[in-house]
Amino acid sequence: MDLGNRRILLSAIVIGVAVLYISRLFYIQVIDDSYKLNALNNSRRFEVHHPARGLIYDRNGKLIVANEAAYDLMVVTGQIKDLDTAELLSIINVSKESFITELKKAQKNRYRPYPIIKQISAETYARLQEKLFDFPGFYVQTRTVRNYPYRCGALVLGYISEVNNSDIKENSYYEQGDYIGKIGIEKSYESYLRGVKGGNYYQVDVKGRVKGSLEDGKYDKPVVLGKNITTTLDIDLQLYGEKLMQNKKGSIVAIDPQSGEILAIVSSPTFDPNSMVGRLVSENYNRLVRDPLKPLYNRPIQGVYPPGSTFKTVNALIGLQEGVVTQNTMYGCQAGYYSGGLHVGCHNHYSPINLIESIKMSCNAYYCNEFRAIIDAPKYGSAREGFLTWQSYIKSFGLGKPLGIDLPSEKSGNIPRAESYDKTYGKNRWNSLTIVSLAIGQGEITETPLQMANIAATIANKGYYYTPHLVKEIDDTVFDKSFIQRHEVPIAKKNFEIVTEGMYQVLHGGPGATAWWLAVKGLDICGKTGTAQNPHGEDHSIFMAFAPRENPKIAIAICVENGGYGATLAAPMATLMIEKYLTDTITNAWREQQVLEKAITYKN
Question: What's the pTM value of the predicted model, to 2 decimals?
Answer without folding.
Answer: 0.87
